[in-house]
Amino acid sequence: MNFLLSDDQQEIQEAVRRYLAKTCQSVDLHRIFDSSSGHDIALWKGLADIGVTGLALPEEAGGMGLELIDLALVAEILGAAATPGPFLGHSLAGLALAWSSNKTLARRWLPGLASGEVIGTVAFAEGASLWWPEEWQLPSAAPVLVGTKTRVPFAAAADLIVVGTSGGQLYLVERDAPGLEISEEDSVDRTRRLGRIQFHKTPASLLTAAPDVAERLCNAARVLLAADAFGGANCCLERTVDYAKTREQFGRPIGAFQGLKHQLADLAVAIEPARGLYWYAAHAFDRIPEQASPAAALAKAHLTDCYIQVSRGSVEAHGGIGYTWDCDIQIYVKRAMFDYAFLGGAPKHRARYADLAGW
């Protein structure tokens, strides 16, 4: 059995890495982080030009027709660079359209989503803790929706919104639909802005009434969040090791002190084995459907937990400067908090894994 990435997968990762090395440097990151919208059109267009926006969408719609594992590998690189933008919500909206039973809507919108000219997002959350299809309470009252969704990624930038409703149904709402009210919500992670959407008898089109499609979409989200968390945690460690080699105290690099060596070693031990969790979760999603849900839950729980641990440990290793606004590490801490909280925290996902395992 081959556990290595293919040449094509490595080339995709390297293409995204090269692009971000030029366009998402520290100065760019802070500029977008501090902006009013958090969405850089030029950065997004560049990602679209190298195929990121249509990676897992059908070839007949202008996508590349690849699998979730390929999308997750890109999410890892985006996470490593703390890339701002609507990648998460857009990718999920595209998958929802691709899996939709409404082929008319799919034909209409998938080409724009694949090219990145149309931005999509997903509206799952209700209140503080209702994230999953079995928890959705927004009434399924086609052809209009009435109610509220919270924590919608880049709601203000989205042209299309995939909305989860009671019974695990998915609806599509267009940005210019009447009765749609979007407001900004506070987000600790300013690289991924959140919005609140209120539907006042807003026209909506049914994408699918099959709850298993909504559940599959949530599993895809869990895998992408886990991949982002791995990329971010790994980058935190690399940056902290580099800092420990150059920052001097008492006439020697701080990395020479045994206490810090042990701390960084503990972080490395926490990170590297976790890579296999998201790889397997993505593989199960693509090839082993009966394992997709437990694998996604476990990957999301462990990797986002790990990201919190590593990012906080990185701040501590940096010392006082790690707490400042100018230090990039604080951005990763906030992304770790987003990855952990979005779709529910680690305890909720561990409980889900236990339920699925029959414990």
TrEMBL record:
The keyword Oxidoreductase applies. Keywords: FAD, Flavoprotein, Oxidoreductase. Its cofactor is FAD. One of its GO terms (molecular function) is flavin adenine dinucleotide binding. Residues 6-117 form the Acyl-CoA dehydrogenase/oxidase N-terminal domain. Residues 213-344 form the Acyl-CoA dehydrogenase/oxidase C-terminal domain. Pfam families: Acyl-CoA_dh_1, Acyl-CoA_dh_N. PANTHER family: ACYL-COA DEHYDROGENASE, ACYL-COA DEHYDROGENASE FADE28. Belongs to the acyl-CoA dehydrogenase family. This is Alkylation response protein AidB-like acyl-CoA dehydrogenase.
